[in-house]
Design brief:
Blueprint (H helix, E strand, L loop, with lengths): L1 E3 L8 H5 L24 H13 L7 H4 E11 L2 E7 L1 H15 L3 E10 L2 E11 L13 E13 L2 E9 L1 H13 L2
Parallel strand pairs: 2-7
Antiparallel strand pairs: 1-4, 2-3, 4-5, 5-6, 6-7
């Protein structure tokens, strides 16, 4: 089980290569320049993506992990919505989450890889410090449970399908409001 903590730090590729579990990986190349050695398997790419970007640690590093254009399929109230994200747009999305949940912690609970796809299920714990879906901050803990399947091409995320228990988040916020 991987635990990820928020760290306010700009990562270099050399530092990314020193993440736990990456010291035995070998240098790989492809495209215009060599890929950092930590980007070896699709599973390792997604694990590092969660540790570095999705955790809120350094959202601007999304460009290391994502293609210039990524199709994001999202389930919202039982309907599927597809949006196009860029690494910059995704980094902004993570910063928005931090505006709502502070320096949240994210824990990968399951990671399964098959060919070009990697499934991740996570638990994210944060403090409700900013407006979320019209609900004012409660300054109390809120847990998000979510999962996504990421599809990679040439060691970059090009598409993903995501489901987040938004109803559960809203119920926690309502309960937290009642406790005041």
């Amino acid at each position: 089980m991987t635990r990820i903590r928020q760290i306010d730090k700009e990562w270099t590729l050399d530092e990314l290569n020193q993440l736990p579990g990456n010291n035995e990986l070998t240098e790989i190349s492809g495209g215009d320049s060599p890929a950092p050695k930590f980007l070896q398997t699709n599973e390792q790419i997604i694990k590092s993506f969660f540790e570095v970007v999705r955790s809120g640690c350094t959202p601007e590093q999304a460009k290391v992990f994502m293609a210039k254009e990524v199709r994001s399929h999202q389930v919202n109230s039982e309907s599927m919505v597809t949006i196009i994200r860029s690494p910059e747009n995704y980094a902004d999305h993570i910063r928005e989450m931090m505006d709502s949940w502070g320096n949240f912690k994210i824990e990968i609970q399951e990671l399964i890889s098959q060919n070009q796809k990697v499934h991740v299920r996570w638990k994210q714990t944060g403090i409700h410090i900013g407006e979320y879906e019209g609900y004012m901050p409660t300054n109390k803990e809120v847990i998000e449970i979510g999962s996504a399947v990421y599809r990679l091409e040439d060691r970059k995320i090009v598409e993903y399908w995501i489901q987040v228990d938004r109803f559960g988040i809203i119920e926690q916020i309502k309960k937290n409001q009642e406790q005041d």
